[in-house]
Inverse folding.
């Protein structure tokens, strides 16, 4: 379970987040929705440690953690970026095994075995030796998910998972996220697409732009 | 142009070409790593370091390499730093080419999408791991054509070492031309430069191809 309490963040004197609270229960999906400019992405960037929060508390399973920490015990969050940000110079398999071998110090063979299992589960069987430029958008997204899952995160976060893809892939993404939920994954989805949110969410958090309130 | 004459002067030309090649290889070996380090410093957030390196790049690109050679060999001894001829040449070339390479690498580093660093960060990779495994391979691919240009320039720039009395390929040709009052030696010199640069181009194309496995 992820809990965020009283999260505040401002940029250059402009308050973006003013005491946001949220909870994502184990195995559930929380969608954060709102118009662009409302601070959804900032919220996600604070939770994933890409942006330092001004103040606030982060708890995973009741235990505090530092999203910006470099300690292994702080490594609890997986991220699937809007543009996926795969490493173009590495194969699909290397994208997935890189962090487990370098950061978790997993043996290469074990990391590869785990990665191949993940790829298979995500319908990327036999794609391990391809490079990102050889994949479709949907496939890239699934590689990004596999790469995040390989680090055994407690929660998986998505930034606008439908926006970089063909509109007709939206249902595929929903199915994918719900499939991971079935496997017990806790997930947090930032989206501006209310319809999509209603399809996958157990809980929806609406954020509004502060200066429009 | 008799074959006999050509055979007679070729050994001295090859000897000169040896000096050219030696200087070429050691300059590359020194200036490429220097260029990468300086480019990282140029993009650092620590302002004094950035200014210092900008000054260095400005000095190196802002004055003729010929002048720098003269200063290193004839000027530095005034302040007590004495180099042998060859060491002085190498020192000046590495500093000069390091500055050009730094600017090329800086451009390469800046064209890497911020998302690459962010993806590495959420995977908890260290800065060093991010550079080594993700950023530098992509930068190298981007900069190969520009580096190639400089590499080819370097082969020819090495002829400037005559000014501090080193015997390179062009000087060997000059000596023979002055002695025998014929342009044949210089014709041969031109031919040898063309062959050397042909080989460089071939190798550079190979390297470029090797990096075409990703986009």
């Amino acid at each position: 379970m992820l809990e965020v309490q009283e999260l505040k963040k401002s940029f250059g004197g402009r308050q973006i987040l003013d005491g946001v609270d949220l909870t994502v229960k184990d195995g559930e999906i929380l969608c954060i929705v709102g118009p662009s400019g409302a601070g959804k992405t900032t919220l996600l960037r604070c939770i994933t440690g890409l942006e330092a929060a001004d103040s606030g508390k982060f708890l995973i399973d009741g235990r505090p953690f530092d999203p910006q920490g470099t300690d292994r015990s702080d490594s609890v969050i997986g991220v699937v970026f809007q543009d996926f940000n795969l490493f173009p110079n590495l194969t699909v398999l290397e994208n997935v095994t890189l962090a487990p071998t370098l950061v978790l110090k997993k043996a290469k063979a074990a990391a590869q075995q785990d990665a191949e299992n993940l790829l298979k589960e995500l319908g990327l069987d036999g794609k391990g030796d391809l490079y990102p430029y050889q994949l479709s958008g949907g496939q890239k997204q699934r590689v990004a998910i596999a790469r995040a899952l390989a680090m055994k995160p407690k929660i998986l976060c998505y930034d606008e998972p439908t926006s970089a893809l063909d509109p007709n892939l939206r249902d595929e993404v929903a199915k994918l996220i719900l499939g991971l939920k079935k496997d017990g994954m806790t997930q947090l989805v930032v989206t501006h697409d209310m319809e999509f949110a209603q399809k996958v969410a157990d809980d929806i958090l609406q954020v509004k732009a502060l200066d429009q309130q | 142009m008799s074959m006999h004459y050509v055979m007679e002067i070729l050994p001295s030309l090859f000897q000169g070409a040896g000096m050219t090649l030696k200087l070429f290889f050691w300059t590359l070996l020194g200036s490429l790593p220097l260029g990468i380090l300086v480019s990282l410093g140029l993009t650092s957030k620590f302002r004094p370091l950035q200014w210092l390196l900008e000054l260095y790049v400005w000095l190196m690109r802002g004055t003729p390499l010929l002048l720098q050679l003269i200063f290193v060999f004839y000027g530095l001894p005034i302040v007590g730093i004495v180099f042998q001829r060859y060491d002085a040449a190498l020192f000046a070339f590495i500093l000069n080419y390091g500055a050009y390479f730094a600017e090329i690498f800086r451009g390469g580093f800046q064209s890497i999408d911020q998302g690459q660093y962010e993806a590495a960060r959420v995977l908890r990779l260290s800065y060093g791991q991010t550079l080594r495994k993700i950023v530098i391979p992509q930068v190298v691919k981007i900069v190969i054509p520009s580096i190639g240009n400089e590499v080819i320039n370097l082969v020819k720039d090495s002829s400037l070492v005559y000014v501090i009395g080193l015997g390179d390929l062009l000087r060997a040709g000059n000596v023979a031309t002055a002695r025998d009052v014929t342009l044949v030696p210089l014709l041969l010199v031109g031919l040898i430069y063309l062959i050397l640069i042909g080989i460089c181009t071939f190798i550079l194309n190979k390297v470029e191809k090797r990096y075409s496995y990703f986009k």
About this structure: The beta strands of chain A are 2-11, 14-24, 29-33, 55-60, 63-64, 77-80, 155-159, 186-191, 203-206. The mean pLDDT of chain A is 91. The radius of gyration of chain A is 17 Å. The helical segments of chain A are 40-47, 92-102, 108-121, 137-149, 170-182, 194-200.
